[in-house]
Amino acid sequence: MILSALLTSVGINLGICFLFFTLYSILRKQPINARLYAPRLVAERKLKDTGFNLERLLPSAGWVKRAWELSEDDLLESSGLDGVVFMRIITFSLKVFSIAALIGMAILLPVNFTGSQLKIDISDLPNKSLDAFSISNVNNGSNRLWIHFCAIYTFTAAVCCLLYYEYKYLSLKRIDYFYASQPQPRQFTVLVRSIPTVSGQRLDESVEHFFREYHPSTYISHTIVRRTNKLQQLTEVPAAFVYFKSRFGAAIALHMQQGINPTKWITEEAPEPDDVYWPFFSTSYLGRWICKLGMLVGTFLLTVLFFLPVLVVQSLTHLEQLERYFPFLKNILRLTVVSQVITGYLPSLILQLFLSFIPPIMKTMSSIQGYISTSEIQKSACSKMIRFTTWNVFFANVLSGSALYGFDLILEPKKVPLLLAQGVPAQATFFISYVVTSGWTSLSSELFQLMALVFSYIKRIFSGKESDDLVVPSIPYEKEIPKILSLGLLGITYFFLAPLILPFILVYFCMGYLIFRNQLLNVYAPKFEMSGKYWPIVHNSTIFSLVLMHIIAMGIFVLKELPLASTLSAPLPVLTLLFNEYCRQRFLPIFTTFATECLVAKDKKEQDNPRMAEFLDKLVDAYKDPALKPKVNDNNNDDNRLTSPLLRSGEIRV
Amino acid sequence: MILSALLTSVGINLGICFLFFTLYSILRKQPINARLYAPRLVAERKLKDTGFNLERLLPSAGWVKRAWELSEDDLLESSGLDGVVFMRIITFSLKVFSIAALIGMAILLPVNFTGSQLKIDISDLPNKSLDAFSISNVNNGSNRLWIHFCAIYTFTAAVCCLLYYEYKYLSLKRIDYFYASQPQPRQFTVLVRSIPTVSGQRLDESVEHFFREYHPSTYISHTIVRRTNKLQQLTEVPAAFVYFKSRFGAAIALHMQQGINPTKWITEEAPEPDDVYWPFFSTSYLGRWICKLGMLVGTFLLTVLFFLPVLVVQSLTHLEQLERYFPFLKNILRLTVVSQVITGYLPSLILQLFLSFIPPIMKTMSSIQGYISTSEIQKSACSKMIRFTTWNVFFANVLSGSALYGFDLILEPKKVPLLLAQGVPAQATFFISYVVTSGWTSLSSELFQLMALVFSYIKRIFSGKESDDLVVPSIPYEKEIPKILSLGLLGITYFFLAPLILPFILVYFCMGYLIFRNQLLNVYAPKFEMSGKYWPIVHNSTIFSLVLMHIIAMGIFVLKELPLASTLSAPLPVLTLLFNEYCRQRFLPIFTTFATECLVAKDKKEQDNPRMAEFLDKLVDAYKDPALKPKVNDNNNDDNRLTSPLLRSGEIRV
């Protein structure tokens, strides 16, 4: 891809962004669109109708100001810890790429540009690729490469520092959030699976007997999970929600192996009551196992088969190939505008389109895989998407040029650094275009909600009125976090190779900062609370990007005939992984469970509260399959959830 | 190595074995050797002096009869569960190799021998290698190879069945053993490390405060670990043994994260009081980390550098090379006897000699690595030794012929099956000789204790009398288990390649069965109780051997031009690993911890026992650094341990 094609792509996307922003700032002020652009405010009845005035028809940036002014405490109050973590992922990336852009643009870019390896004629720059700005232009064996070497060390140290302080800050936040939380049923409940059936004893009696015997001082009661089978009869599921008097009591049952046979009496953390994914309880143990295995294979196949669209995308960036395959298009393709659109804008757009089908598929796969809560399904889909995007956006595009596809990488790991060092720099311009399309435009359409807008107009035209059910969405983490992390991956790996990508990424995160704060204020309401469990995923992903950068650097220094720098880079991945290991020991346990110290302190604080007895009374009714509840209850439930997202049925205020 | 050289080696070893057996059966009856051949009986004062009679001077097999008649219950009584597990490793191997020998000798050997691939002249067999009996002799592409294919499937299924029943049997035994055990201090104790120091509070007060606050109903007391520093002063070690009223109470503190900061208040299982490895408490947290890392690197280097002696050994088996390097030896080397001893017996003997230096080194390394009990040090040294032997006995010998040494294996994993398929069959005769030397002779010298006998005679001659301190040894697991497993590895991998090795291995295990039972009766007394924790190591090791066999088989079938059989073998390692995963979930937790069900049942059974109060009173004095105890106590301690190994100071009978 040449410079002018890239500029075409940037131009198109910039145009779309401005259009969307302008339309949004007008349309959002029309009351008719309130359910689309501020469903949360509508549900919370916070929207005031100011009557018609002329200002409504003019674009304005008032929403930017409100989004800017939102404090972290307000965010915590309105969107929970997960909302805060989500915004901190963006601010963390902003910090990382500010440092990267500073080093990259001020130091590395001039060094690259003043090299003479590629013998690029400056006057003909628009028709050349952007390699003049990349490390490829530095002369082989030049001592200037030591500047890149130092930059890599400095940047790694800076990112690790940021990672450490972020992990520490969020750990403390998570504990504070726990101390400040109202009692929730899931804190006092444990899900027990694989309850052994004793002949002559009902399941109910087995559970009662077991917990009365082994947890006499903390056990309160339990609810056996019941499902209707295909004949509409209630059936014998060997799982139960068991309730305890204290959080510590529930944690003991959770963390200790219960039965002598480790495959029986398996205890798991209970999700919030309306977070339970009931359908999965119908599956047997063997069924669960097969489902899990099947879905692992399925995810793998999906990831591999996605190579085909990537190939199509990559063939578009090489116009000559296209001409050869479709000779009748030759005349059209020779038009400058057409060729620039095809090589510059189209590839990223097509990739973007194909990618948009994947998150729902991954979510379905995770739900079959055997998670018992929708929040866990979402988290698992998010992890799957990260692996998918890393492989298919980064590796597939980088390696599609070389003869061997991914499998050989696993079979011949010693070729990896050199292969990456050859493939990665060549894709710099494509990825800049990808950042603009996948980043900028998708952000502005997130704000503008183009598809939803069109659908709502069509609906209104045909049915004449809006439907009554207002749906307040929650952030689609499984879509947004992988996208943010994939741009982070590109930014980190290209930091020293082609620093020209950094300003584009920085703009993305600046826009994201404002747009997502606005969306959290007006659109998204938290459905379930994960209490910040997404952060460790982001941390690991960043470490992966760093190590990948180190491996590429080692390869590049060999290619650029400075093997000493390659050798001296070797301690970097080792040190980074040691740092990661330290973080894993120091912080990760805080994100997976709560310590005795926390649990007992919280229990003690509340033991004298007279309303705890009332809470514990209500607790035994908390976990009921909604399909088995009377219809009226069901509606109440939904209403609750919509009116105040942090006052859901799952939480009972004391 | 040719057949006649192998026969020389077998002959030499057989001779040594007979000599040792005969000498042992005479010498063991002399009262002067009682401390050497029956130290355990001496310590337990079970040895009767029958006075002199002529029978004493004649070899007899009475000890064989007594060893044969020993029942498992007697063994459990006298040697604990670890003794039983050790003997079951041998009986398990006996079962495995009986099946292997049956299939191998009755079916595979005739098939191999009637092949004509190698065009071996039967009349000149003594001067040929043993390849006529190996799979190499089966014609390429022959359908007879399907017999090998079926044999592999059958054998794998049989071994997995045996593994399953063994794991199940030992799981039940472990639980029974726990139920039948006397209360032991370690069951009621938890070791707490990394106690945070609060200014103005003594360590003692911190611990007291923490456990009174968070475990008020089960905490009894604690002992701060104190060490003398180089100035002979008592110092501020931030570790303590904390005592609880019940096993369940201790288990809760053990399995739950205690402090909010996961790197503080770290709880670990307490070892038995006289199993504690005190010196290690002096090391700081950072020191421990560096030690651990250093020892990992150390083990790796030791394993790699050991390639040098292996190279020497392998060069001996190729006589021509030796002649080239040392031309002046040519005449001697041409003598048939000399050449046969050098190529047949010497290589295994040298390898054996070098190998015997390794276990003490590994034990030292494990003790530096940071385990707090001598039994854990021994277990870790055992695991290290298994990896070491697998690499240096098996892989190094197999690959020394090929151009690339181990590292390339990791870097180019797709070459592994073919490389092994080429290398492994070629070493069949060397490994038969290794089995005879490392197996048979070392077993008989285990019985005869040659070195100890010589030393005791020298000592007696120079000092005029025996020393007073009688040392009853315990089984050197870190030496014996890796040896048994390495022979198991050879047997499993060579089962279908060169079945001629199987009778030699079977003889080894038959001898081992008798000799080790005899040694457990007369020589070894258990020092510490691991309650069968060695079994999972053996299980994993056997699974590894099976999968290695499958990989070699896949390579061999390709080499023998029957690629379909190679493809159809691919499910085997997958199925084996799935089986292993099932066992890991079903049985492994039983070997790492005890379930709530066990602990509470055991606690309840004893709660009405009036002597429990007395036990709990004594408990607080159980953990004291012997270096800080008055000298008199120390002696008592040792006496206790020697007189009755299962009635050690660590156990207080109720």
Automatic annotation (TrEMBL), chains A, B:
Similarity annotation: Belongs to the CSC1 (TC 1.A.17) family.
Name by which UniProt lists this protein: CSC1-like protein HYP1
Source organism of this protein record: Saponaria officinalis (Common soapwort)
Its membrane topology: Multi-pass membrane protein
GO function terms (MF aspect): calcium-activated cation channel activity
Residue span(s) of domain CSC1/OSCA1-like cytosolic: 235-279
InterPro entries in the cross-refs: Csc1-like, CSC1/OSCA1-like_7TM, CSC1/OSCA1-like_cyt, CSC1/OSCA1-like_N
The UniProt record lists the keyword Transmembrane: yes
Ranges for domain CSC1/OSCA1-like N-terminal transmembrane: 5-166
Top-level taxon in the UniProt lineage: Eukaryota
Keyword Transmembrane helix: yes
Region called Disordered, residue ranges: 628-654
Ranges for domain CSC1/OSCA1-like 7TM region: 293-557
Locations listed in the record: Membrane
Membrane-crossing residue ranges in chain numbering: 6-27, 85-109, 145-165, 293-312, 332-358, 393-411, 487-516, 536-559
GO cellular component annotations of the record: plasma membrane
Entry keywords, A to Z: Calcium, Ion channel, Ion transport, Membrane, Transmembrane, Transmembrane helix, Transport
